[in-house]
Amino acid sequence: MESEAAPYIGMLMAECCQVGLMIISKQAMSAGMSTFVFVCYSNAFASLILLPFSFFFHRSEQRPQLTFSLLGWFFLLALSGMEKLNIRKISCLAKLVGAMVLIAGAFVATLYEGPPLLNRPVSLHTHQLSIIGEHTRWILGGSFLAVDCVMASSWAIIQAIILKKYPAELIVVFFYCFFITLQSGIVTVILERNLSAWSLKSTMRLLAVLYSAVFGSALQVGLCSWCLRKKGPVFVCMFKPLGIAIAAVAGVVFFGDTLYLGSLLGIIIIVLGFYSVMWGKAKEEKKINDSQFGSLQSPTQKVPLLANHAKETVNFAA
Fold first, then answer.
1. CA distances from 289 to 96, 275, 285 (A)
2. Alpha-carbon span 99 to 239, nearest angstrom
C-alpha cells in the first residue's frame, strides 16, 4: 500500500536535487561552460537515461496511444487544472494564508539581508566587487526570476493536463527532456558559434552535466511529475519556496556562506507558511476520506434498521 507521506518525501527530494543542481551548475558556468550547451547536454543525457527505463517501467500498463496531439502537448510542455478555492472553509483559508506567507518568506530571504549572524572572513576588495555586481544585475536577475515563476506555474498546469490524458510519468518526462534537447540544440547552434564550448574535457563540466541529467532532469522532474498526478499542481508549486530555505542552509553548512538575519527570518516564515498549506491540504484530504468511508458504510448501517423494522412488524402481526 502506498504511503500517504510518499508525495511529501518525493517533493522534498526534488527540491534538494534542484538546490544541488543550482550549486553545481553555477560552478560549471563560473568555470566557463556555456549555459546553452549545459542545458542541451543535460537533457540529451537525461533522454538517453529515460528512454529504456520509461518504456520498461510502464510496459504492463494500459496507456492511451501516442498521437500528434499528445506530442504537441509534450512540445508545449518543454517550451513553457488549479484547485478550487472556497474561503468559507478553514482548510482553504489556511492554504490561502499559507501561500501568502510562503511568498512573503521568499521575499524576506531574498531581498532583506540584515546583520550577519555567522560571519565569514571576506576581503574588502571582494566585498566591494560583490556589492557592485549585485546592484548592476539585481533588476535583470529579478526579472528573469519573475518570468521563471510564471513559466514554472504554467509548466505544472500543462503537465497536470497531460498526465490526465497520458498517465505515464516517466514517458512524459522522457519526451519533455527530448524536446528540450531539440529546442536548446537549435538555439545553441545559432548563438554559440565557438566549437570549443561543446567540449566536456573539464572534470567540472562533465560532473555538472551528469548530475543535471540524473538528478536535475530525470529524477527531479520524474518526482515532480509523479506528485503532480497524485496531488495536483498546487501541491507541487507550494514546495518551491522551500528550495530557498534548503539552499540557505546548504550554503552555510557546506560552503561556509554567511548567515544573515534576513535569511533566518525568511526560512522561519517559509516553514510556517508551508505547514499552514500542508495543514489545510491534510484537513481537506481527511474530510474527503471520511466522506468516502461514510458513503461506503451507509448501506450496511441501513440493514439493521430495516431488519429491526421487519422484526417489529412481525411481532405486531403476531
1. 22, 21, 6
2. 10
Task: Out of 192-206, 243-257, 291-305, pick the least confident.
Answer: 291-305
End-to-end, the C-alpha distance of the chain in Å comes to: 52
pLDDT tens digit sequence for 175-193: 889 988 999 999 999 988 8
Q: What DSSP designation does 114 have?
A: -
Angle at 249 between CA 236 and CA 252, to 5 degrees: 155
- d(C-alpha 228, C-alpha 152), whole Å: 13
Q: Dihedral through CA 243, CA 246, CA 247, CA 251, nearest 10?
A: 180
Which ranges of the chain would DSSP assign to H, the alpha helix? Answer: 6-30, 35-57, 68-79, 90-111, 124-165, 169-191, 203-211, 220-231, 233-237, 242-255, 261-317
Distances from the Cα of 82 to the Cαs of 15, 51, 200, 232, 274, in angstroms? 21, 30, 41, 7, 18
Query: Cβ contacts of residue 94 below 8 Å, gap of 6+?
Result: 276, 277, 279, 280, 283
The CA-based angle 219-224-230, given to 5 degrees, is 125
How far apart CA 128 and CA 159 sit, in angstroms, is 44
Q: How far apart are CA 109 and CA 32, in angstroms?
A: 29
